[in-house]
Description:
The chain contains 16 helices and 11 strands. It is an alpha/beta fold. The protein folds into 2 domains: 20-198, Rossmann fold (3-Layer(aba) Sandwich), CATH 3.40.50; 220-340, Roll (CBS-domain), CATH 3.10.580.10. Helix 12 links the parallel strand 6 (232-234) and strand 7 (253-257). Helix 2 crosses helix 8 and helix 9 (200-206) crosses helix 10.
Amino acid sequence: MTGFSLRRRAVNRGGINPDKITDAFILKFGRSVVTEESAALRLAAKGMGKDFTRAVRLLLAASGKVVVLGVGKSGIIARKIASTLSSTGTPSVYIHPVESLHGDMGLIAKGDVILALSYSGETEETAKLLPLLAKEGLKIISLTNNPDSKIARYSDIILRLNIRHEACPYNIVPTSSTATMLAVGDAVAITLMRIKGFNSSNFARLHPGGNLGKLLNLRVSDLMHKGRENPVVRTGSTLKAALAVMTGTRVGAVSITDRHGRLAGFFTDGDLRRGLECGKAGLASPIDKLMTKNPVCVYPDTMAIEAARIISARKIDNLPVIDRKTSRPIGIIDEKDLLKEGLL
């Protein structure tokens, strides 16, 4: 199809004349969608009250898991909310209402709490399921825009969305409603997380893989160069001796220790260049005069992401790693290793 034909079709189908689609128009319309959704979120936040606190308290007291229900776009949001709850210390599972009516109700146990999502509150599949769950004595929280709906009727607690208009010119496409459902679900999950004292260590335990796992699990001890790959010389050594030790390893730095074996200084390739430029670095020069005294250092249990932050902020290539108790240098962490792990 020719470009001309495509342009004709766009106009004939009620679209905007391609000649009028400027960058300014695109940006203005895109921003209006985000603005509309953010307004809906502010309205939802303002409308949160006693029902929200009751819902959180009910979930805190539950002996079982949270079962999240939803169909269509609400189902997609329900899956995300269930995932967020589970990953932040509140066991949860998403179940499709249709599948529940055909056997998956067996996954729902006494002590579970139901969180049902439906913008209209009239979703047929969910509306059929809730009376059966209520009959089993299960507590039900609904997330809906219609407090007079069938779903709300069978709910113990109603979290109203307060949506006035979708961020769609025809008020059809789920946009403001799904954004608000997700935000309220996140509010429930993170409030529970905060109350339970679920911290980054707990989160790391549940997220061992991927980049997130690296951020939360990798420590300096996992990446540092140690043993023969950790160059160390004593104070009083010459620059020549220090360079010989550095050359024998893959890192461009060396730790300098005092007579007790404690870290006294740090010398890097950068220090060498600066010493040569100002004429202070001769092979017979004592390393004590060239090293950086009292250098910034990290510990083996320091999170790798924190070491990356220090290296980035100070614009350096390496950091000495010392034992917390003895202050002895036990390793060096290098910028290249952090880059390889995607932390820089």
